[in-house]
Amino acid sequence: MTAKIIDGKAFAARVRAEVAGHVARLKADHGITPGLAVVLVGEDPASEVYVRSKGKSTVEAGMNSYEHKLDAATSEADLLALIGKLNADPAVHGILVQLPLPKHLDSDLVINAIDPAKDVDGFHISNVGLLGTGQKSMVPCTPLGCLMMLRDHHGSLAGMDAVVVGRSNIVGKPMAQLLLGDSCTVTIAHSRTKDLGEVCRRADILVAAVGRPEMIPGDWVKPGATVIDVGINRIERGGKTVLVGDVDFAGAAKVAGAITPVPGGVGPMTIACLLANTLTACCRANGLPEPEGLTA
User: Fold this and answer.
1) Is 126 contained in some domain?
2) Per UniProt, where does NADP(+) bind (predicted)?
3) Global confidence as pTM
């Protein structure tokens, strides 16, 4: 293996510590404590784990954590009423509705009911539009974490060829917008792209976010490229369930210049950036300077 391993776990720990330091200063200098409200509807096991982790990380950063766990049969009207209360609560600076929602609830309607200034997931249509036009917005956490790691590794990204494999609203599209904002030449590719391997091979930065285990083999990676693997896939291997990314790590690590592992790469950055977004939202709400290095 020749690639440098980009340690997302260690990087996320640094981001969380930086956020905690800003929070402590907000409390000491202004008497303000950022607050994050997380809404969970139903009992999806994976979602429950995420919510617990988010709550724990929020408290560890010195923020206030408000958890709202609702029955799976909760009506759309009741959920929207709760969001309305959180929008109006000055102690709540960030609101996150855990996805997926039960099938009887309209996710787009629910997300767009959140005050865009408190939309720390960055999914509200207003934030999507602001990001797409290069204006100040709340940026989705996973792409923001990827951008932070790329900036840390490379410094300037200007002029680099970037290929994003995946076109989701949550990762692929906002990732491409962020890379454009840092003056990369960006291609969005996907499972139906013709000659996908050739497209990937020209990338100085290759971001894999397609949701297919080890879809990108090592010989699709340009020698010396930086590979950001967003995928988290559970597969059976050797009689055990293991986590793998969208990239064949063993093959890619032989030719890449740097690569994120799975697990321990992009994943830990998502919650760290959720905390960073909550801090940013709190600063904006109170007319205070935004923390440098924690936004796009």
Assistant:
1) no
2) 166-168, 232
3) 0.95
